[in-house]
Design brief:
Elements lengths: L13 H16 L3 H13 L6 E6 L3 H12 L3 E6 L7 H8 L4 E3 L7 H12 L5 E4 L3 H9 L9 E4 L2 H12 L6 E4 L4 H24 L7 E5 L3 H12 L3 E5 L3 H9 L3 E2 L2 H7 L2 E4 L9 H4 L7 E4 L9 H7 L2 E6 L2 E5 L5 E5 L5 H4 L8 H20 L7 E3 L3 H15 L8 H7 L7
Parallel strand pairs: 1-2, 1-4, 2-3, 4-5, 5-6, 6-15, 7-8, 7-10, 8-9, 10-11, 11-14
Antiparallel strand pairs: 12-13, 13-14
EC number: 3.13.2.1
GO biological process, one term: one-carbon metabolic process
Family: Belongs to the adenosylhomocysteinase family.
């Protein structure tokens, strides 16, 4: 087991970092009515008393407020990053100052340090896991199976992690229950569409200082994240091109008015590329060979394998940092292709990135919090495997949000409920 140290042992001025991190968390919390409501409930009722929660997440201000909520609910929490470049060290330090929280998240770690930090979290012997990408679940099953019998369950935040979990479940290898938080409406309809769409384009614009208007923006993948990027880019007067492998999604993009074509055709005309697939080798050597001079490549999927950077580096005769967060690769014909945030999540890993809007993550983290509570309160109801989030939990979070916004809605009458629940009413 790793003895990788907490964030406090990596910083020269821990107190200043904690102060700045707390300032960021407090600002975010002002715009998180769902977590504020749940904080009051969790602090009063202590539903997580006695639990140890191991987390691998993007450690920034919004996530930190979820972590603190779980600690206020009675849990001991250990956390590290789920991406080497998405951690805010000051926020990590602020979390580590809490008596019930240990944070191992450090920005800019190498691959060995990244996995050492996960092992340090696992050394706390979590009874619940909360993941973004499934690296912690995998580490436990692969290296520490003796912990599985004492794990109540887990929750997975993102598309890539859920894909991995479902594959693991289909192989009969997932040995405790995990909620697919990513697949619930309160996550997909808001976090994936509005969150990914807005934050990805905002960070591309801030990193490059280019406009989307009149540009050919190529969106790889037309799932919920791709739909969000395409919608927001179109709203900024870009010409949107979608690439897909799934016929129905491709048809949907076509019917929405976007151009649809293979990546190698899109590569010839694209100005800005945004991958959103969660898969590997989306933009490859044959695409680099036909791209325009000055093309901008970014990833809004998950891992840094959507853009084949090894192939790009092999093709390049020179590479250098064109500006903060932009790596330029010069081809032998003089063309320059520009990769943002080292091919990692552009909305979280670029130097100025702040991730999804606060209000969006308030909803997703609200679902995470009630799922953790559900695992503790009704653990016996869930066998090993991937589980959909119970609809009543998703509705609970939506109701808190509507109440906070002062929005009222109608309610079904008894007659309407009976009609909708009956098969005997005919014409």
């Amino acid at each position: 087991m790793s003895d990788y140290p907490p964030i406090s042992e990596h910083l020269d001025d821990v107190e200043s970092a904690r102060t700045e991190g707390r300032r960021k968390m407090d600002w975010a919390l002002q715009h998180m009515p769902i977590l504020n409501e749940l904080r009051d409930q969790f602090e009063a009722e202590k539903p997580l008393d006695g639990q140890v929660i191991g987390m691998a997440m993007h450690v920034e201000a919004k996530t930190a407020n979820l972590v603190e909520l779980l600690a206020l609910g009675g849990a001991e929490v250990a956390i590290t990053g789920c991406n080497p470049l998405s951690t805010h060290d000051d926020v990590s330090a602020a979390l580590d100052a809490h008596e019930n929280i240990t944070s191992y998240a450090v920005r800019g770690v190498d691959e060995d340090e990244y996995y050492d930090a996960i092992e340090s979290v696992v050394s706390h012997e979590p009874t619940i896991t909360v993941d973004d990408g499934m690296d912690m679940v995998f580490a436990i099953h692969e290296d520490y199976p003796e912990l599985i019998d004492t794990i109540v369950g887990g929750a997975e935040e993102t598309t890539t992690g859920v894909h991995r979990l479902r594959a693991m479940d289909e192989d009969g290898a997932l040995e405790y229950p995990v909620f697919a938080v990513n697949d619930t409406p309160m996550k997909r309809l808001f976090d994936n569409v509005h969150g990914t769409g807005e934050s990805s384009l905002a960070n591309i614009a801030m990193t490059t200082n280019v406009s989307f208007a009149s540009k050919n923006v190529v969106v790889a993948g037309y799932g919920y994240c791709g739909k969000g990027v395409a919608k927001k880019a179109s709203g900024q007067n870009a010409n949107v091109i979608v690439t897909e492998v799934e016929p129905r999604r491709a048809l949907e993009a076509h019917m929405e008015g976007y151009d649809v074509m293979p990546m190698n055709e899109a590569a010839k005309v694209g100005d800005i590329f945004v991958t959103t697939t969660g898969n590997r080798d989306i933009v490859t050597e044959k695409d680099f060979e036909v791209m325009k001079d000055g093309a901008i490549l970014s990833n809004a999927g998950h891992f840094d394998i959507e853009i084949d950077l090894e192939a790009l580096s092999d093709l390049a005769v020179d590479e250098y940092d064109a500006r903060d967060g932009v790596r330029a690769y010069e081809m032998d014909d003089g063309r320059k292709l520009n990769v943002l945030a080292e091919g990692r999540l552009v909305n979280l890993a670029s130097p100025i990135a702040l991730g999804h809007p606060i209000e969006v993550m308030d909803q997703s983290f609200g679902v995470q919090a009630v799922c953790v509570r559900e695992l503790v309160e009704n653990a016996d109801a869930y066998d090993a495997g991937v589980h959909d989030v119970p609809d009543e939990l998703d509705v609970e979070v939506a109701e808190i949000k509507l109440a906070a916004e002062g929005v009222e809605i109608d309610a079904l009458t008894d007659e309407q409920r009976e009609y909708m629940g009956s098969w005997s009413h005919g014409t």
